[in-house]
């Protein structure tokens, strides 16, 4: 199998895995601690290969996540598209941040995502969510260094580098 094919399969597999991880149910008290996996994986790919991730891909992945999760159609598509737009805008700076600064930036992205989710849900007529609604971005930011290093290590082991 040639390197281009391996790169494409690895990219698609990580995005599909993020959707599968999003669907795994957690017990009731742990549900607020569930990170937003598609956003974390898309942020990784935005930083590693910005030419491969675009607004169209983020929108399509968000629509797929909406269909898988049974959410309001377009809700996650809007959130992921906004996140990828901002990440691509600041990609050249974020790539060279130390890990702790990248983690803070990811926390900012995930908090922005929660604000968009809150706006969509409140404008849709839902009541305000409980305080534990805000825990998930902090869990995602805490997992970011590990996710980044694992995906980067696997990419290096498979010798998948951008041309």
From TrEMBL:
Chief location of this protein within or outside the cell: membrane
A biological process term (GO) from this entry: regulation of cell shape
Free-text function comment from the UniProt entry: Involved in formation of the rod shape of the cell. May also contribute to regulation of formation of penicillin-binding proteins.
Record protein name field: Rod shape-determining protein MreD
Bilayer-crossing regions: 56-73, 94-111, 131-151
Organism: Luteibacter pinisoli
Topology term for the membrane: Multi-pass membrane protein
UniProt key word Chaperone: no
């Amino acid at each position: 199998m040639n390197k281009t094919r391996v790169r494409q399969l690895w990219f698609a597999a990580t995005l599909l895995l993020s959707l599968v991880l999003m669907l795994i149910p957690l017990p009731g008290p742990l549900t607020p601690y569930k990170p937003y996996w598609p956003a974390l994986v898309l942020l990784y790919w935005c930083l590693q290969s910005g030419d491969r991730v675009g607004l169209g891909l983020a929108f399509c992945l968000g629509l797929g996540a909406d269909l898988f999760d049974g959410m309001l159609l377009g809700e996650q598509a809007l959130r992921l598209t906004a996140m990828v737009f901002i990440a691509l805008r600041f990609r050249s700076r974020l790539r060279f941040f130390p890990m702790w600064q990248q983690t803070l930036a990811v926390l900012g992205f995930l908090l922005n995502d929660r604000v968009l989710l809150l706006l969509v849900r409140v404008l849709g007529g839902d009541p305000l969510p409980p305080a534990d609604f805000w825990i998930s971005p902090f869990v995602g930011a805490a997992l970011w260094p590990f996710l980044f290093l694992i995906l980067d290590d696997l990419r290096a082991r498979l010798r998948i580098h951008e041309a």
